[in-house]
């Protein structure tokens, strides 16, 4: 099978989904980083939406992180999606749900003022409540073993945990199942290996550089 190439931006949570899966499934892959502020022409020719991740396989581009996840799960066995069609569809639905929380989380980090920050924090909190209600005995979404949904949610949970350590509101405090979920995911080597060296500083530095409410109020940017 041809070696896939992942087109990446190093802080992107959607790209991180693909990297975690490639690592979990022990796939040999190449990675090419691009600067999203100056997208190269070859990338724009490859990516219809101009977004990362793109997984290039045999000269063809797969885009949309959830689609890439499904592809990787199909071609690199064993599958880690539930086998039952209904369970699988429900897991897919929650992958979409988590994608919407990536947007809320980014909006929270970038909100220009307190009102915007609090609105996004509340939106994220409501989403996390819905996830908390879905979790069973854990530690993973479906129980004892991690599935595609877990690795698709991991980048969000990792960022929330990191921000909370940086002094932002603790969104896991009143959500014990989520706390257990994030702890189990962060224990996996694929999580730490899926981000660049110095990820925490780079991520917080990126937020800081945007001058948002979080940057000024929590991260001490001026
Ligand atoms: N729905 C897409 C979202 C990907 C996405 O928004 N990627 C961001 C980086 S984290 C991007 O490429 N943004 C560039 C742009 O919108 O111009 C997916 O799941 O892959």
TrEMBL record:
It is an enzyme of class 2 (transferase). Keywords: Oxidoreductase, Transferase. Residues 84-206 form the GST C-terminal domain. Its EC number is 2.5.1.18. One of its GO terms (molecular function) is glutathione transferase activity. Pfam families: GST_C_2 (PF13410), GST_N_2 (PF13409). It catalyses: RX + glutathione = an S-substituted glutathione + a halide anion + H(+). CDD domains: GST_C_family. Residues 2-80 form the GST N-terminal domain. InterPro entries: Glutathione-S-Trfase_C-like, Glutathione-S-Trfase_C_sf, Glutathione_S-Trfase, Glutathione_S-Trfase_N, GST_omega, GST_Omega/HSP26, Omega/Tau-like, Thioredoxin-like_sf. The keyword rRNA-binding does not apply. GO terms for cellular component: cytoplasm. This is glutathione transferase.
